[in-house]
Amino acid sequence: MLLGNDTKSIVKTSTRFLKTISDFVGNLCCDCDEGRTQVVPEVNSIFEPLIKILEDRERVAKEDPGQRLLVIFPGCLLNLCNETPDSIAAVSRLRCVEVVLQSVLGTRTNDAVFNSALVFLQVFSECEVGSERLARCTIFPTGT
């Protein structure tokens, strides 16, 4: 277990540490099926605390004014999910897509955040499980 289940201590974790975790997981999974195989069973313990912090947009803006975490996180997800339906299915069960979409919608001028998120969302949507998850995503407005 990379981060563990102690959510109270994770919430006190700095965004700098979370950037390091995202970098580590992303690098472990980059073009490496063995790395993805190791990460998939731990997706909940790795990403749930990270998502909890990323959902606190005020905190992230205060601790990470350069928005590096918002660039690194989609890249990490991209490396984990790239051409791997099992990884996409695991990430689909969490709120990762919503967090990435909120980052895009809440970003005003950071092209790196926008580009990183779009590349991840494109790869995610190319898998059946991912496109189904995007179709159920509550962030998108429903037609009237």
Topology:
Elements: H1 7-11, H2 15-29, H3 33-39, H4 43-54, H5 57-63, H6 68-81, H7 85-92, H8 96-106, H9 111-125, H10 128-135
Helix pairs in contact: 2-6, 6-9, 7-10, 8-9
Features:
10 helices, globular, mainly alpha
Short overview:
By secondary structure, the protein is mainly alpha-helical. It has helices spanning 7-11, 15-29, 33-39, 43-54, 57-63, 68-81, 85-92, 96-106, 111-125, 128-135.
Overview of this structure, please?
- The chain has 144 residues and is mainly α.
- It has one domain (7-135).
- 71% of the residues lie in helices and 0% in strands.
- The protein contains ten helices and no strands.
- The chain has helices at residues 7-11, 15-29, 33-39, 43-54, 57-63, 68-81, 85-92, 96-106, 111-125, 128-135.
- The termini are far apart.
- The model has no long low-confidence stretch (mean pLDDT 84).
- The total beta strand count reads 0
Distance between the amino and carboxyl termini? 44 Å
- Please tell me what the overall shape is: globular
In N-to-C order, the SSE pattern is HHHHHHHHHH
Q: What does the largest sheet look like?
A: none
Classify the beta-strand content into a percent band: under 5%
Radius of gyration, taken over Cα atoms and rounded to an integer in Å: 14 Å
- Overall tally of domains: 1
Instruction: Briefly note the structural class of the backbone.
Output: mainly alpha
- Count of helical segments? 10
Overall mean pLDDT score? 84
Helix content: over 70%
Poorly predicted runs of 5 or more residues: none
